[in-house]
Amino acid sequence: MSHDRMPDHRKLGRELGLFDTDPLIGAGLPYWLPDGAAVRHALEEYVRDLERRAGYRHVYSPVLGKRELYEISGHWSHYRDDMFPPMELGGEQVVLRPSLCPHHALIYRSRARSYRELPLRMAELGGMYRAELSGVLGGLHRVRSIQLNDAHIFCTLDQVADEVRGALEMIRLAYQDMGIAPPRYRLSLAGPGGKYVAAPELWERSTALLIEALESCGLPYEEAVGEAAFYGPKIDVQVVDAAGREFSLSTVQVDFHQPGRFDLHYIGADGARHRPVMVHRSVVGSVERAVAHLIEQHGGAFPAWLAPVQLVVLPVSDAEAPQAAAFARRCVEAGLRAEAVDPERGSLGARIRQARLVPYQAVIGAKEAGGDRVALRLRDGRRLESQPAGDVLARVRSRVHGHSTDL
Ligand SMILES: [Zn+2]
User: Fold this and answer.
1) Ligand 1 centroid – CA 110 distance (Å)
2) Distance CA 279, CA 117 (A)
3) Measured distance CA(146)–CA(139) in Å, rounded
4) 99 alpha carbon to ligand 1 midpoint, in Å?
Protein backbone atom coordinates (compact mmCIF):
# COMPACT_ATOMS: atom_id res chain seq x y z
CA MET A 1 0.00 0.00 0.00
CA SER A 2 1.47 3.38 -0.93
CA HIS A 3 1.75 5.81 1.97
CA ASP A 4 -0.70 8.35 0.49
CA ARG A 5 -3.40 5.68 0.75
CA MET A 6 -2.42 4.47 4.21
CA PRO A 7 -4.86 5.35 7.00
CA ASP A 8 -3.67 7.33 10.00
CA HIS A 9 -3.01 4.94 12.89
CA ARG A 10 -4.57 7.36 15.40
CA LYS A 11 -7.93 7.35 13.62
CA LEU A 12 -7.87 3.61 13.00
CA GLY A 13 -6.61 2.86 16.49
CA ARG A 14 -9.67 4.56 17.94
CA GLU A 15 -12.13 3.01 15.44
CA LEU A 16 -10.79 -0.49 16.06
CA GLY A 17 -10.55 -0.02 19.83
CA LEU A 18 -6.79 -0.64 20.02
CA PHE A 19 -5.56 2.23 22.21
CA ASP A 20 -6.57 5.67 23.44
CA THR A 21 -5.47 8.49 25.70
CA ASP A 22 -7.02 10.41 28.57
CA PRO A 23 -6.10 13.97 29.50
CA LEU A 24 -5.97 12.91 33.16
CA ILE A 25 -3.25 10.39 32.38
CA GLY A 26 -1.54 12.92 30.17
CA ALA A 27 -0.30 13.66 26.68
CA GLY A 28 2.01 11.05 25.20
CA LEU A 29 0.89 8.41 27.68
CA PRO A 30 -1.52 6.18 25.73
CA TYR A 31 -3.20 3.14 27.26
CA TRP A 32 -3.86 -0.11 25.41
CA LEU A 33 -7.36 -1.56 25.09
CA PRO A 34 -7.83 -5.36 25.05
CA ASP A 35 -7.62 -5.70 21.24
CA GLY A 36 -4.54 -3.47 21.07
CA ALA A 37 -3.00 -5.31 24.00
CA ALA A 38 -3.51 -8.61 22.12
CA VAL A 39 -1.57 -7.26 19.12
CA ARG A 40 1.17 -5.90 21.37
CA HIS A 41 1.42 -9.13 23.34
CA ALA A 42 1.71 -11.19 20.14
CA LEU A 43 4.46 -8.88 18.85
CA GLU A 44 6.38 -8.96 22.14
CA GLU A 45 6.22 -12.75 22.37
CA TYR A 46 7.29 -13.04 18.73
CA VAL A 47 10.36 -10.89 19.39
CA ARG A 48 11.26 -12.81 22.56
CA ASP A 49 11.01 -16.08 20.68
CA LEU A 50 13.15 -14.76 17.82
CA GLU A 51 15.74 -13.63 20.36
CA ARG A 52 15.74 -16.94 22.26
CA ARG A 53 16.40 -18.77 18.98
CA ALA A 54 19.28 -16.40 18.24
CA GLY A 55 20.99 -17.12 21.58
CA TYR A 56 19.80 -14.13 23.61
CA ARG A 57 18.97 -14.41 27.32
CA HIS A 58 16.30 -12.11 28.74
CA VAL A 59 16.58 -9.93 31.82
CA TYR A 60 14.33 -7.44 33.62
CA SER A 61 15.63 -4.19 35.06
CA PRO A 62 13.88 -1.24 36.73
CA VAL A 63 12.77 1.87 34.85
CA LEU A 64 14.43 4.10 37.46
CA GLY A 65 18.06 4.67 38.31
CA LYS A 66 20.15 7.08 40.33
CA ARG A 67 21.23 10.24 38.58
CA GLU A 68 24.82 9.15 39.10
CA LEU A 69 24.25 6.14 36.82
CA TYR A 70 23.48 8.46 33.91
CA GLU A 71 26.37 10.72 34.77
CA ILE A 72 28.64 7.71 34.32
CA SER A 73 26.93 6.55 31.10
CA GLY A 74 27.17 10.05 29.62
CA HIS A 75 23.40 10.51 29.22
CA TRP A 76 23.39 13.28 31.82
CA SER A 77 25.83 15.45 29.90
CA HIS A 78 24.79 14.56 26.34
CA TYR A 79 21.10 13.68 26.52
CA ARG A 80 19.65 15.55 29.51
CA ASP A 81 17.27 17.70 27.42
CA ASP A 82 15.35 14.54 26.48
CA MET A 83 15.16 13.24 30.06
CA PHE A 84 12.51 13.80 32.72
CA PRO A 85 13.66 15.99 35.61
CA PRO A 86 15.14 14.06 38.54
CA MET A 87 13.01 13.16 41.58
CA GLU A 88 14.29 13.84 45.09
CA LEU A 89 14.14 10.72 47.20
CA GLY A 90 15.73 10.39 50.64
CA GLY A 91 18.56 12.80 49.86
CA GLU A 92 19.24 11.17 46.50
CA GLN A 93 18.10 11.96 43.00
CA VAL A 94 16.53 9.25 40.88
CA VAL A 95 15.52 9.60 37.23
CA LEU A 96 13.26 7.78 34.81
CA ARG A 97 15.67 6.03 32.52
CA PRO A 98 16.26 7.38 29.02
CA SER A 99 17.68 4.03 27.82
CA LEU A 100 18.32 0.49 29.01
CA CYS A 101 22.07 0.34 28.26
CA PRO A 102 23.37 1.47 31.67
CA HIS A 103 21.34 -1.16 33.54
CA HIS A 104 22.58 -3.87 31.18
CA ALA A 105 26.19 -2.73 31.56
CA LEU A 106 25.78 -3.12 35.35
CA ILE A 107 24.26 -6.59 34.94
CA TYR A 108 27.24 -7.54 32.75
CA ARG A 109 29.72 -6.39 35.36
CA SER A 110 27.83 -7.94 38.29
CA ARG A 111 30.32 -10.79 38.15
CA ALA A 112 33.59 -11.74 36.46
CA ARG A 113 33.23 -12.66 32.79
CA SER A 114 35.36 -15.04 30.74
CA TYR A 115 35.99 -14.87 26.99
CA ARG A 116 34.16 -18.21 26.84
CA GLU A 117 30.88 -16.40 27.66
CA LEU A 118 31.24 -14.05 24.71
CA PRO A 119 29.35 -13.03 22.70
CA LEU A 120 27.00 -12.49 25.66
CA ARG A 121 23.60 -11.45 24.30
CA MET A 122 21.32 -9.73 26.86
CA ALA A 123 17.80 -8.74 25.86
CA GLU A 124 14.89 -6.96 27.52
CA LEU A 125 11.55 -5.53 26.47
CA GLY A 126 11.63 -2.70 28.95
CA GLY A 127 10.21 0.70 29.75
CA MET A 128 12.07 3.93 29.13
CA TYR A 129 11.00 7.57 29.14
CA ARG A 130 11.53 10.58 26.93
CA ALA A 131 10.49 14.11 27.87
CA GLU A 132 8.94 14.94 24.48
CA LEU A 133 7.32 18.35 24.25
CA SER A 134 3.52 18.12 24.31
CA GLY A 135 3.22 19.84 20.90
CA VAL A 136 4.80 16.91 19.05
CA LEU A 137 2.84 14.15 20.77
CA GLY A 138 0.23 12.11 18.94
CA GLY A 139 -1.01 8.54 18.85
CA LEU A 140 1.72 5.96 19.29
CA HIS A 141 4.45 7.60 17.20
CA ARG A 142 5.75 10.11 19.71
CA VAL A 143 5.15 9.04 23.29
CA ARG A 144 6.72 9.84 26.64
CA SER A 145 6.53 6.30 27.99
CA ILE A 146 8.20 3.82 25.64
CA GLN A 147 8.40 0.03 25.72
CA LEU A 148 11.67 -0.71 23.96
CA ASN A 149 12.71 -3.97 22.35
CA ASP A 150 16.37 -3.69 23.28
CA ALA A 151 19.42 -5.89 23.51
CA HIS A 152 23.12 -5.51 24.17
CA ILE A 153 25.72 -7.89 22.89
CA PHE A 154 28.98 -7.84 24.82
CA CYS A 155 31.66 -9.27 22.56
CA THR A 156 35.26 -9.12 21.39
CA LEU A 157 36.29 -6.82 18.56
CA ASP A 158 36.61 -9.87 16.26
CA GLN A 159 33.00 -10.85 16.94
CA VAL A 160 31.41 -7.47 16.19
CA ALA A 161 30.91 -7.86 12.42
CA ASP A 162 29.16 -11.24 12.81
CA GLU A 163 26.93 -9.92 15.58
CA VAL A 164 25.91 -6.89 13.50
CA ARG A 165 25.18 -9.18 10.54
CA GLY A 166 23.16 -11.48 12.81
CA ALA A 167 21.10 -8.51 14.04
CA LEU A 168 20.47 -7.33 10.47
CA GLU A 169 19.29 -10.84 9.57
CA MET A 170 16.85 -10.87 12.53
CA ILE A 171 15.50 -7.52 11.36
CA ARG A 172 15.03 -8.83 7.79
CA LEU A 173 13.13 -11.87 9.04
CA ALA A 174 10.95 -9.85 11.42
CA TYR A 175 9.93 -7.39 8.67
CA GLN A 176 9.05 -10.30 6.41
CA ASP A 177 6.87 -11.90 9.11
CA MET A 178 5.25 -8.55 10.00
CA GLY A 179 4.46 -7.95 6.32
CA ILE A 180 6.29 -4.61 6.37
CA ALA A 181 7.64 -3.30 3.06
CA PRO A 182 11.41 -3.58 2.60
CA PRO A 183 12.87 -0.70 4.55
CA ARG A 184 15.63 1.77 3.80
CA TYR A 185 18.92 1.50 5.68
CA ARG A 186 20.57 4.62 7.00
CA LEU A 187 24.09 4.91 8.36
CA SER A 188 23.76 7.59 11.03
CA LEU A 189 26.96 9.50 11.73
CA ALA A 190 28.00 12.21 14.19
CA GLY A 191 27.57 15.86 13.27
CA PRO A 192 29.10 19.07 14.56
CA GLY A 193 28.50 20.29 18.12
CA GLY A 194 28.90 18.94 21.64
CA LYS A 195 26.13 16.35 21.36
CA TYR A 196 28.62 13.54 20.77
CA VAL A 197 31.42 12.06 22.85
CA ALA A 198 34.82 13.01 21.45
CA ALA A 199 36.93 10.02 20.41
CA PRO A 200 37.57 10.28 16.66
CA GLU A 201 39.50 7.01 16.31
CA LEU A 202 36.72 5.01 18.00
CA TRP A 203 34.05 6.61 15.81
CA GLU A 204 36.05 5.68 12.73
CA ARG A 205 36.47 2.12 13.87
CA SER A 206 32.75 1.68 14.69
CA THR A 207 31.73 3.24 11.38
CA ALA A 208 34.02 0.90 9.44
CA LEU A 209 32.52 -2.14 11.22
CA LEU A 210 28.96 -1.05 10.41
CA ILE A 211 29.82 -0.42 6.75
CA GLU A 212 31.49 -3.83 6.53
CA ALA A 213 28.34 -5.52 7.87
CA LEU A 214 25.99 -3.58 5.56
CA GLU A 215 28.11 -4.36 2.52
CA SER A 216 28.57 -8.03 3.32
CA CYS A 217 24.77 -8.33 3.67
CA GLY A 218 24.40 -6.59 0.29
CA LEU A 219 22.23 -3.83 1.78
CA PRO A 220 22.26 -0.43 0.07
CA TYR A 221 22.36 2.47 2.54
CA GLU A 222 22.52 6.23 2.76
CA GLU A 223 24.61 8.25 5.16
CA ALA A 224 22.99 10.82 7.48
CA VAL A 225 25.23 13.25 9.34
CA GLY A 226 24.04 14.34 12.78
CA GLU A 227 21.78 11.32 13.42
CA ALA A 228 24.19 9.14 15.46
CA ALA A 229 23.70 8.18 19.11
CA PHE A 230 25.84 10.38 21.37
CA TYR A 231 28.20 7.46 22.02
CA GLY A 232 28.58 6.06 18.51
CA PRO A 233 27.37 5.63 14.93
CA LYS A 234 24.42 3.40 14.09
CA ILE A 235 22.50 1.69 11.36
CA ASP A 236 18.88 2.91 11.43
CA VAL A 237 16.16 1.04 9.61
CA GLN A 238 13.78 3.64 8.20
CA VAL A 239 10.09 3.29 7.35
CA VAL A 240 7.48 5.82 6.19
CA ASP A 241 4.25 6.69 8.04
CA ALA A 242 0.80 7.55 6.65
CA ALA A 243 1.69 11.25 6.43
CA GLY A 244 4.80 10.41 4.37
CA ARG A 245 7.21 11.12 7.22
CA GLU A 246 10.19 8.83 7.54
CA PHE A 247 11.12 7.48 10.96
CA SER A 248 13.44 4.86 12.51
CA LEU A 249 12.15 1.53 13.78
CA SER A 250 15.09 -0.83 14.17
CA THR A 251 18.67 0.07 14.97
CA VAL A 252 22.11 -1.53 15.29
CA GLN A 253 24.96 0.34 17.00
CA VAL A 254 28.59 -0.34 17.79
CA ASP A 255 29.74 1.24 21.04
CA PHE A 256 33.28 1.49 22.41
CA HIS A 257 32.31 4.33 24.76
CA GLN A 258 30.05 2.81 27.45
CA PRO A 259 32.23 -0.29 28.06
CA GLY A 260 35.00 2.18 28.99
CA ARG A 261 32.75 4.38 31.11
CA PHE A 262 31.53 1.35 33.08
CA ASP A 263 35.00 -0.24 33.14
CA LEU A 264 33.66 -3.48 31.68
CA HIS A 265 36.09 -6.31 31.10
CA TYR A 266 36.45 -10.01 30.51
CA ILE A 267 39.28 -12.42 31.19
CA GLY A 268 40.82 -13.49 27.89
CA ALA A 269 42.40 -16.83 26.92
CA ASP A 270 45.70 -15.19 27.90
CA GLY A 271 44.47 -14.68 31.48
CA ALA A 272 44.57 -10.91 31.10
CA ARG A 273 41.73 -8.35 31.36
CA HIS A 274 40.25 -7.11 28.09
CA ARG A 275 37.58 -4.55 27.26
CA PRO A 276 34.47 -5.92 25.46
CA VAL A 277 32.65 -4.00 22.74
CA MET A 278 28.91 -3.32 23.19
CA VAL A 279 26.62 -3.84 20.20
CA HIS A 280 23.23 -2.22 20.87
CA ARG A 281 20.43 -3.53 18.70
CA SER A 282 16.66 -3.34 18.45
CA VAL A 283 14.68 -5.53 16.06
CA VAL A 284 11.32 -3.73 16.15
CA GLY A 285 12.33 -0.56 18.00
CA SER A 286 9.72 0.77 20.37
CA VAL A 287 6.62 -1.40 20.62
CA GLU A 288 4.46 1.75 20.30
CA ARG A 289 6.01 2.81 17.00
CA ALA A 290 6.06 -0.72 15.65
CA VAL A 291 2.34 -1.22 16.33
CA ALA A 292 1.53 2.25 14.91
CA HIS A 293 3.33 1.27 11.74
CA LEU A 294 1.66 -2.15 11.57
CA ILE A 295 -1.78 -0.51 11.91
CA GLU A 296 -1.05 1.88 9.03
CA GLN A 297 0.71 -0.65 6.83
CA HIS A 298 -2.12 -3.18 7.05
CA GLY A 299 -5.05 -0.80 7.48
CA GLY A 300 -6.04 -2.85 10.55
CA ALA A 301 -6.02 -6.15 8.60
CA PHE A 302 -3.07 -7.60 10.51
CA PRO A 303 -1.28 -10.83 9.54
CA ALA A 304 -3.15 -13.66 11.30
CA TRP A 305 -0.49 -14.14 13.99
CA LEU A 306 -0.90 -10.47 15.05
CA ALA A 307 -4.68 -10.09 14.64
CA PRO A 308 -6.62 -9.26 17.85
CA VAL A 309 -9.21 -11.86 16.82
CA GLN A 310 -7.85 -14.52 14.52
CA LEU A 311 -11.00 -16.48 13.85
CA VAL A 312 -14.72 -15.79 14.25
CA VAL A 313 -17.20 -18.64 14.26
CA LEU A 314 -20.53 -17.74 12.65
CA PRO A 315 -23.52 -20.05 13.11
CA VAL A 316 -25.99 -19.54 10.26
CA SER A 317 -28.97 -19.80 12.64
CA ASP A 318 -29.64 -20.22 16.36
CA ALA A 319 -29.84 -23.98 15.80
CA GLU A 320 -26.05 -24.14 15.17
CA ALA A 321 -25.08 -21.81 18.04
CA PRO A 322 -24.03 -24.66 20.39
CA GLN A 323 -21.71 -26.18 17.75
CA ALA A 324 -20.29 -22.73 16.98
CA ALA A 325 -19.58 -22.07 20.66
CA ALA A 326 -17.94 -25.49 20.99
CA PHE A 327 -15.69 -24.91 17.96
CA ALA A 328 -14.68 -21.44 19.21
CA ARG A 329 -13.78 -22.98 22.59
CA ARG A 330 -11.72 -25.66 20.87
CA CYS A 331 -9.81 -22.96 18.95
CA VAL A 332 -9.15 -20.96 22.13
CA GLU A 333 -7.87 -24.09 23.85
CA ALA A 334 -5.56 -24.66 20.87
CA GLY A 335 -4.00 -21.23 21.55
CA LEU A 336 -5.94 -19.12 19.03
CA ARG A 337 -7.82 -15.88 19.65
CA ALA A 338 -11.29 -16.96 18.55
CA GLU A 339 -14.90 -16.10 19.34
CA ALA A 340 -18.39 -17.12 18.22
CA VAL A 341 -20.74 -14.37 17.02
CA ASP A 342 -24.36 -15.45 17.28
CA PRO A 343 -27.34 -14.57 15.01
CA GLU A 344 -28.66 -12.14 17.66
CA ARG A 345 -25.82 -9.85 16.48
CA GLY A 346 -27.26 -9.64 12.96
CA SER A 347 -27.79 -11.53 9.74
CA LEU A 348 -24.99 -13.76 8.47
CA GLY A 349 -24.10 -11.14 5.85
CA ALA A 350 -23.98 -8.38 8.46
CA ARG A 351 -21.79 -10.47 10.78
CA ILE A 352 -19.42 -11.31 7.91
CA ARG A 353 -19.11 -7.59 7.06
CA GLN A 354 -18.54 -6.75 10.72
CA ALA A 355 -15.70 -9.26 10.88
CA ARG A 356 -14.10 -8.10 7.61
CA LEU A 357 -10.71 -7.50 9.29
CA VAL A 358 -10.67 -10.93 10.97
CA PRO A 359 -8.41 -13.29 8.97
CA TYR A 360 -10.65 -16.37 9.26
CA GLN A 361 -14.44 -16.72 9.40
CA ALA A 362 -15.74 -20.19 10.11
CA VAL A 363 -19.37 -20.55 9.01
CA ILE A 364 -21.43 -23.37 10.51
CA GLY A 365 -24.79 -24.20 8.87
CA ALA A 366 -27.06 -27.18 9.37
CA LYS A 367 -24.96 -29.37 7.06
CA GLU A 368 -21.70 -28.53 8.86
CA ALA A 369 -23.19 -28.81 12.37
CA GLY A 370 -24.36 -32.36 11.66
CA GLY A 371 -20.92 -33.59 10.56
CA ASP A 372 -18.46 -31.62 12.74
CA ARG A 373 -17.52 -29.61 9.68
CA VAL A 374 -16.79 -25.95 8.96
CA ALA A 375 -17.05 -23.77 5.84
CA LEU A 376 -14.06 -21.46 6.02
CA ARG A 377 -14.01 -17.97 4.50
CA LEU A 378 -10.75 -16.07 4.29
CA ARG A 379 -10.42 -12.32 4.75
CA ASP A 380 -9.21 -11.94 1.15
CA GLY A 381 -12.57 -13.18 -0.13
CA ARG A 382 -11.69 -16.83 -0.79
CA ARG A 383 -14.26 -19.41 0.29
CA LEU A 384 -13.15 -22.95 0.93
CA GLU A 385 -15.23 -26.11 0.61
CA SER A 386 -16.84 -27.35 3.80
CA GLN A 387 -14.26 -29.51 5.58
CA PRO A 388 -13.72 -31.34 8.90
CA ALA A 389 -13.44 -28.87 11.81
CA GLY A 390 -10.14 -30.45 12.87
CA ASP A 391 -8.59 -29.71 9.45
CA VAL A 392 -9.65 -26.06 9.62
CA LEU A 393 -8.17 -25.74 13.09
CA ALA A 394 -4.91 -27.33 11.91
CA ARG A 395 -4.68 -24.98 8.92
CA VAL A 396 -5.21 -21.83 10.99
CA ARG A 397 -2.80 -22.99 13.68
CA SER A 398 -0.05 -23.73 11.19
CA ARG A 399 -0.39 -20.29 9.53
CA VAL A 400 -0.41 -18.54 12.91
CA HIS A 401 2.46 -20.47 14.44
CA GLY A 402 4.50 -20.13 11.24
CA HIS A 403 4.00 -16.31 11.36
CA SER A 404 2.80 -16.51 7.80
CA THR A 405 1.44 -13.45 6.04
CA ASP A 406 -0.57 -15.81 3.79
CA LEU A 407 -3.97 -16.88 5.07
ZN1 LIG B 1 21.70 0.47 24.33
Assistant:
1) 17
2) 15
3) 12
4) 6
Concatenated DSSP letters of 166-208: HHHHHHHHHHHHHTPPP-EEEEEE--SSTTS---HHHHHHHHH
The angle subtended at Cα 214 by Cα 213 and Cα 220, nearest 5°, is 170
Q: What is the pTM assigned to this prediction?
A: 0.94
C-alpha of residue 120 to centroid of ligand 1, in Å: 14
Q: 303 C-alpha vs ligand 1 centroid, how far in Å?
A: 30
Q: What is the residue-level pLDDT of the chain in tens, covering all 407 positions?
A: 444 567 889 899 999 999 999 999 998 999 999 999 999 999 999 999 999 999 999 999 999 999 999 999 999 998 889 999 999 999 999 999 999 999 999 999 999 999 999 999 999 999 999 998 876 677 888 899 999 999 999 999 999 999 999 999 999 999 999 999 878 999 999 888 767 777 788 888 889 999 999 999 999 999 999 999 888 899 999 998 877 888 899 999 999 889 999 999 999 999 999 999 999 999 999 999 999 999 999 999 999 999 999 999 999 999 999 999 999 999 999 999 999 999 999 999 999 999 999 999 999 999 999 999 999 999 999 999 999 999 999 999 999 999 999 99
The DSSP letter of residue 337 is -
The CA distances from residue 402 to 250, 290, 304, in Å, are 22, 20, 10
CA 365/CA 374 separation, integer angstroms: 8
Which residues have their alpha-adjacent CB atom under 5 A from ion ligand 1?
A: 101, 280
Beta bridge partners of 317: none
